[in-house]
Amino acid sequence: MPVIAAQPYEYSFPTGKLALVVIDMQRDFVEEGGFGSVLGNDVRPLAAIVPTVRRLLDGFRAAKLPIIHTREGHRPDLTDCPPSKIARGKGALGIGDKGPMGRILIDGEPGNDLVPALAALPGETVIVKPGKGAFYATRLGHLLEMQGIGHLVFAGVTTEVCVQTTMREANDRGYECLLAEDATESYFPDFKAATLAMIRAQGGIVGWTAPTDTIVKALR
Ligand code: C5J
After folding, report:
1. Percent of the chain beyond pLDDT 90?
2. In a mutational test of the pocket of ligand 1, which residue from 37, 69, 84, 158 has the highest number of ligand atoms less than 8 Å from its CB?
3. Cα 19 to Cα 211: distance, rounded to the nearest angstrom
């Protein structure tokens, strides 16, 4: 089995049975005027990881391994969005409101697109998810089962919200999860650091972490 130098110890995976899950690298979170900035966050640290996420994507593409992209998005009629989620935040603009990139966090609006450098290629899967976790109310679990995938590498934003929630969902379902440390980011540096520490604490209670270059080298 190929091995990746990771924390808290080496991560091994069966050849050809490793998938990449890129969480929510959409304009809503990464560009000015989207949901992230409307909530008062500085989006620049998230935009800064785009080239690193691209390196990871290119590594998986070269190795011909499955790639899944997610977007956090709701139906235009918001029937898949709990009223509590709409009400939360009390910002000037909320979910479903018209912002500079179209209606905020709505599937099909320009702001809901993946950032251009990380657009999905033909054959790659895009999952639109109404929750923070990518397994909740989506076909992700079924899709992985059909392909016999048990090992997942994670990247994307934000580390402590959608990335961590999805990793925990995956961990509880029996997947072996590895987070690419520098291909994930948060609006809050302390939250990112705490999440990485939490994931690999207690012998990898949620999974493993490793740098992108180490992961990509192991794929070759
Ligand atoms: C958030 C996400 N932070 N993708 N979504 O609301 O982490």
Report:
1. 93
2. 158
3. 16
